[in-house]
């Protein structure tokens, strides 16, 4: 009984609030753990791809490295430049963390587990991910440093060119599922024997992947924080916990974007019906396993691409966004609509 | 552009090739050597901490000619000599400021008696400057510590052969060697 109340809510609003708070605590706690170990695995994976070892000193094979990093960042001096715009400087790092963490609210991790099952989930995610770019732009402005300013400028330009492509790439998914509710998108994919929109929407998936890298400022599109050109980009002047907030926001953003890719293209917590019909034992595995497995693959993809592809040149990046991705996404929408209408 | 080139560009063939390479590399052994645990002997001829050669009779081999100090590019060798009662040159002080040394080993090459060497020892970092200002006693004890045994003798013989012993052109050098006989 308590389980159904936990997942679907009850008539007692007090109980509902308590359950929602518990859910929020669980989701934030688990996500933060994932963020910590995402940094560790990033260093390990890239290390091994470059034929070196990565962190090895703190704990066996360096597994306690994220804890040590956290402690270090926590006790570091918090420096605010004398010429910085202080209120904006202080608010800026909170915005991306706030935006990315609140995106977690609408993500269905497995059957029935959503903090807020709203009908415009996808739209809400877009809104929140564009909001997090404001943190970057504000940091670039408030630091009063040329490098941060260039980073902020680049970030805003990047957001303009990639948000569009990203939104358009998911329109195909919306057409096929007929909903913006993330749980319903997953359920809609169960209606097909292949169980994933990845197969009919492979063009959209490609566009989404590229836009996903740009959206989270990861290589090859990490222009706002291009180390070799802008020192560290928009967060040059940040130190200690404020820097850690940006770092956390970046990794939470990666997890959110991977989750969206999984939900919209990989069937979320479900497996293709074809597969579950063939091996009924797979139905007994909890959905969170598949969900996390698919998310981990996408996060690995982030690391993999980072270890392989060099940074794009700035004008090439804009050209790719406007001249390739947006036309591709638009063509995909047209074709999907025609096919959907005909069938 | 041929169709092949266009296909290459559209399907990101080069990027996938690169991705395959990095993935393959992920499963190869890392080349990292974890230094304090995994040590490696320096290669023969490695130029580490300085030492003054001690003759079998226990005295320093150095005669105080000052050639090493003269050739030293960073001028970190200080030599003070005096005349003894039986009119022989005595080396009072022989000091090397290790922190300024650039490890070119010109001093070793310049020395006509092979009296100064660079040992393979390289782990001598310290917190004070005094500890790295080597006087004659310290340099001689470096010889005792790091250049003992057969291996060290071979090392000395092979790499820091004093020019005094053979001033000829190496046998394998194709040069005019005068008329035979």
In short:
Chain B: Keywords: 4Fe-4S, Cell membrane, Iron, Iron-sulfur, Membrane, Metal-binding, NAD, Quinone, Repeat, Translocase, Ubiquinone. Chain B: It is found in: Cell membrane. The complex is a heterodimer of chains A (343) and B (181). Chain A is mostly helical and 343 residues long.
Features:
heterodimer; A: 343 residues; mainly alpha; B: 181 residues; alpha+beta; Alpha-Beta Plaits; three-stranded antiparallel β-sheet; two-stranded antiparallel ribbon; NADH_quinone_OxRdtase_chainI (chain B); metal-binding (chain B)
CATH architecture field of the domain at 47-164 in chain B: 2-Layer Sandwich
The value of Rg of chain A in angstroms is 21 Å
Order of helices and strands of chain A: HHHHHHHHHHHHHH
Instruction: Tell me the Rg of chain B in angstroms.
Output: 26 Å
The SSE order of chain B reads: HHEHEEHEEHH
Helix run count of chain B: 6
- The helix content of chain A is 55-70%
Biggest chain contact: A-B, 14 and 15 residues
pLDDT averaged over residues of chain B: 82
Describe the strand arrangement of the main beta sheet of chain B, using strand numbers.
2-3-5
In CATH, what is the class of the domain at 47-164 in chain B? Alpha Beta
CATH topology grouping of the domain at 47-164 in chain B: Alpha-Beta Plaits
Task: Give the overall silhouette of chain B.
Answer: elongated
Strand content of chain B: 5-15%
> How much β-strand is present in the residues of chain A?
under 5%
Count of beta strands of chain A: 0
- Pairing-aware structural class of the strands and helices of chain A? mainly alpha
How many strands, which pairing sense, and closed or not: the largest β-sheet of chain A?
none
């Amino acid at each position: 009984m308590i389980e159904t109340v936990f997942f679907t809510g009850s008539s007692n609003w007090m109980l509902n609030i308590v359950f929602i708070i518990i859910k929020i605590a669980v989701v934030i706690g688990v996500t933060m753990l994932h963020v910590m170990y995402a940094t560790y695995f990033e260093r390990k994976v890239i290390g091994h791809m470059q034929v070196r070892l990565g962190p090895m000193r703190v704990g066996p094979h360096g597994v306690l490295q994220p804890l040590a990093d956290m402690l270090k960042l926590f006790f570091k001096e918090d420096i605010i430049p004398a010429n910085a715009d202080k209120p904006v400087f202080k608010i800026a790092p909170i915005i991306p963390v706030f935006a990315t963490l609140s995106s977690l609210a609408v993500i269905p991790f497995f059957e029935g587990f959503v903090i807020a099952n709203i009908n415009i989930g996808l739209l809400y995610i877009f809104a929140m991910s564009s909001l997090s770019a404001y943190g970057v732009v504000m940091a670039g402005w408030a630091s009063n440093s040329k490098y941060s300013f260039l980073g902020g400028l680049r970030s805003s330009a990047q957001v303009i060119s990639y948000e569009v492509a990203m939104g358009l790439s998911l329109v195909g998914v919306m057409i096929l599922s007929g909903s913006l509710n993330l749980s319903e998108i997953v359920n809609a994919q169960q209606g097909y024997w292949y169980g994933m929109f990845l197969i009919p929407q492979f063009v959209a998936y490609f566009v989404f992947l590229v836009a996903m890298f740009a959206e989270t400022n990861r290589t090859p599109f990490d222009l706002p924080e291009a180390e070799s050109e802008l020192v560290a980009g928009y967060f040059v002047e940040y130190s200690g916990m404020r820097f850690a907030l940006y770092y956390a926001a970046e990794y939470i953003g990666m997890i959110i974007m991977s989750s969206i890719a999984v939900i919209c293209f990989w069937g979320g917590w479900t497996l293709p019906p074809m597969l579950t019909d063939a091996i009924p034992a797979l139905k007994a595995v909890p959905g969170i396993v598949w969900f996390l497995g698919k998310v981990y693959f996408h996060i690995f993809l982030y690391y993999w691409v980072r270890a392989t592809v060099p940074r794009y040149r700035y004008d090439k990046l804009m050209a790719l966004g406007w001249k390739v991705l947006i036309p591709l996404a638009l063509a995909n929408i047209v074709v999907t609509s025609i096919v959907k209408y005909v069938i | 552009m041929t169709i092949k080139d266009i296909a290459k560009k559209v399907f990101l063939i080069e990027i996938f090739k690169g991705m395959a390479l990095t993935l393959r590399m992920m499963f190869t052994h890392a080349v990292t050597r974890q230094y304090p645990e995994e040590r490696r002997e320096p290669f023969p001829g490695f130029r580490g901490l300085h030492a003054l050669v001690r003759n079998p009779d226990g005295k320093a081999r150095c005669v105080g000619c000052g050639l090493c100090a003269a050739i030293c590019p960073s001028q970190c060798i200080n030599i003070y000599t005096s005349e003894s009662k039986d009119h022989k040159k005595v080396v009072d002080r022989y000091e090397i400021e290790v922190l300024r040394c650039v490890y070119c080993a010109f001093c070793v090459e310049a020395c006509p008696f092979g009296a100064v060497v660079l040992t393979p020892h390289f782990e001598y970092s310290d917190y004070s400057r005094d500890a790295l200002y080597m006087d004659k006693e310290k340099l001689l004890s470096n010889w005792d510590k790091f250049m003992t045994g057969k291996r060290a003798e071979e090392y000395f013989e092979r790499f820091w052969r004093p020019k005094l012993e053979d001033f000829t052109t190496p046998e394998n050098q194709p040069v005019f060697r005068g008329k035979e006989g």
